[in-house]
Design goal:
Blueprint (H helix, E strand, L loop, with lengths): L1 H21 L3 E3 L4 E4 L4 E4 L9 H6 L11 E2 L2 H12 L6 E3 L9 E4 L9 H7 L3 E3 L7 E9 L4 E9 L2 H6 L2 E6 L15 E3 L1 E4 L3 H22 L1
Parallel strand pairs: 8-11
Antiparallel strand pairs: 1-2, 2-3, 3-12, 4-12, 5-6, 6-10, 7-8, 8-9, 9-10
Helix pairs in contact: 1-6
Length: 224
């Protein structure tokens, strides 16, 4: 019976890993966050801490703070996640080092509905939408991180209105060449701060669950 349970658990784990490998790199959660499955890191959605300054968000990371359990994302973490999210999707314009090493720029979607980034954009959330309900609706998203020379940012823009959707490219990029520290204490609805935390990957969670079931089975047999 134990061997059968082990075989079933391992089979389920194999299928789950295969499914995860074929799914997108960026996956949505129900916790106002998304996960980069290639690193296992969980990122706060756009649209959660927007309207708050970088320094205010940083002040809320400790015990009892509004964002307890989260951390300011490092430059390396941001570069890696943005590359995992947007490179290799088949965008019409893709440059991994547009503004400097690792500072990518991608665009796609002109003349078609949506773009190759649509699912990723949806998983990440959005800071603010303009011209809602009109043919010129679009989502604007800028998020700060500590870069090479001070405060820097990632940017993504999705055109969702019926006219803009067909006549503009959705875009995403990293810009890390200037010092934007003058914005450390400024609050904008369009701008947020990149926060990250470690998470247990779904396959690992399933494996832990399977082992727990097996352990419980052994305990029950030992009592007989």
């Amino acid at each position: 019976m134990t061997l059968k349970m082990l075989t079933t658990a391992l089979s389920a784990l194999t299928l789950f890993i295969a499914f995860s490998a074929s799914a997108g790199v960026i996956t949505d959660t129900n916790n106002d966050s998304f996960i980069d499955t290639s690193t296992g890191l969980e990122w706060m959605d756009f649209g959660i801490n927007n309207g708050q300054s970088y320094n205010y968000v940083a002040s809320q990371l400790g015990q009892g703070g509004q964002y307890q359990g989260w951390a300011l994302a490092s430059k390396e973490q941001v570069y890696t996640m943005w590359a995992n999210a947007f490179l290799g999707l088949g965008a019409s314009d893709e440059n991994a080092n547009h503004s400097g090493t690792g500072q990518l720029y991608v665009s796609d979607g002109y003349g078609v509905s949506g773009s190759v980034f649509s699912e990723t954009f949806d998983a990440m959330g959005s800071n603010i939408a303009y011209n809602i309900g009109t043919p010129y609706e679009y989502n604007y998203n800028l998020a700060w991180f500590a870069g090479n020379n001070g405060l820097s940012y990632v940017y993504k823009q999705e055109f969702t209105g019926s006219y803009y959707d067909l006549n503009r490219n959705d875009i995403a990029y990293i810009y890390d060449n200037n010092n934007y520290d003058s914005n450390l204490n400024r609050s904008y609805e369009q701008r947020s701060t990149m926060l990250v935390r470690s998470t247990v990957s779904a396959p690992a969670t399933l494996a832990i669950f399977a082992l727990a079931l097996i352990g419980l089975r052994f305990r029950r047999q030992a009592r007989r």
